[in-house]
Amino acid sequence: MNVLSLFTGAGGLDLGLEAAGFHVAGCVERDRDCRRTIADNTSWRVASEGDAEKLDVKRLLEEFELKPGEVTLVAGGPPCQPFSKSGQWSNGTPARMSDPRARTLHAYFDVLDAALPRVMVLENVKGLVAKPRAGSTEEQAVELLARVLEDVNGRHGTSYRPSIIHVDAADLGVPQRRERVFVLAERSGLEFAAPQATHGRSAPDGAPRFTTAWDALADLDSDDWDPALAAGGQWAGLLPSIPEGRNYLHHTRKGDGEPLFGWRRKYWSFLLKLAKDRPSWTIQAQPGSATGPFHWRNRRLSAREMARLQTFPDTHRFSGGYTSVRRQIGNAVPVALGEVLGLAIRTQLLGHMDLGVPSSLPRQRHDCPPAEVPAPVPTRYLALRGDHDDHPGPGQGPRGVQIKAGTRQ
C-alpha cells in the first residue's frame, strides 16, 4: 500500500497514513526546512525536484521506481490561500482558480493523470468546494476536478468519481477544532463516506467527549516557561483580560468586557485564547503578534505544544526557527486525522476488515483544573472605550471597499 505524497510539508497526513498501515514511497516538497524535517524524522525518499509545478511526472515516477497503476494512493494538500475564508471576509470573495497560487491544483492533477493511483486524496480548506458567487463565470476548483477526472477516465478507461467529505478533526478525537475538506476518488468508481464522528456532540450517545487542550498539554503546563514565548506587540497587555476560550469579541458591546472594539472589526484569531476544557482553536500557520490561539497562561504556544495539538509524536523534531516551525505545524493535517482517514480508506475502498481504533489520539484525562480568572483591563487600553460600529459584512470593510473601487490590489 504505497503512497506518493505531494506538498508533503512536515508530513502530518503521511505520518497518519503510515500509522494506518501505508508506506510512503516518495514525497514532493520544496520548502528547505520541511525537507530537513522529513529527512530528520523519516526514511522517506524526497524528490530531487521539490516544486510540484516544475515536475516532469514521468521522471518522478522513475525516480521512485513506480509505474502507472502501481501507486495505491496519491495524497496531498495544495496550498490553500486561494480558497481561504480570511480572503473572503476581507475582500468579499477569494480569488480561487484565478489566483496564480491555484496552479498547484493543476500540478496535483498532472501527477494523478500519470500515476493512475488506486485512490486519490486531496485535502484543503472548506473554500475549495464553496459555491461560486452570484453571476460568476469563473470555473471553480470542484468543477475543474470533475472535468479532469472525466478526461482521465476517457483516456485511460478508469472510473474515478469524486467523493467530497467535510470533517472537523475534533469530532474524530483530535484536540483541535480544524475543519477541512477531503476529496477522494477510487479508480474503479467506489464511493467514499466520511468517517462518522467518534467524539463530542456529533457522536453517538455514550461516545467519548471532545479531546481537550488540557488532555493534550497538561503534562507540559508549568508556571516556569521560556521567556521567548511571551506575547509581544501593542496588544500583549490586553491578553490577560480575555477569558479562556474567548477572543477580542469579549471586549465589544456584545461581549462581557469593556467596549474597546467594534463587533467583528478584527479577525477571529485576534487575541484568541485556549480553554483547558475544550479542543484547541485551529493552529494558524502564519500568525501576527496578536494572532492566537494563545496559551491560557497568556503566552504564545511552544513548538511542542502546537505539535501536540496537531497530534505529532513527541519524537518528531521540526527544522528551522519558530516562524518556520509554526508554519510547518499550522499547515499540516493532524497526524491522527490522517490515520483515521487511512483506516477508513482501507476498509471502504481497499476491502480490508475493521482495523480498530487509531493509535495516535491522545488519552483523555480527568484532572482538568478550573479556568484562569481574567485580569482587569490595563489602564492604557481604557482610552479605547466607546460606541464602536459593527463590521458591515464580508467584503464591506475598508480593504474590501478599496479593492472593489480599484484603489487597492
Automatic annotation (TrEMBL):
Which catalytic residues are annotated?
Answer: C80
Organism of provenance = Capillimicrobium parvum
| GO MF term (any one) | DNA (cytosine-5-)-methyltransferase activity
The gene it comes from is haeIIIM
Under what name is this protein listed?
A: DNA (cytosine-5-)-methyltransferase
- Which keywords has UniProt assigned to this entry? Methyltransferase, Restriction system, S-adenosyl-L-methionine, Transferase
Q: Which parts form a coiled-coil structure per UniProt?
A: none
Q: Which Gene3D superfamilies match?
A: DNA Methylase, subunit A, domain 2, Vaccinia Virus protein VP39
Broadest EC class assigned to this enzyme? transferase
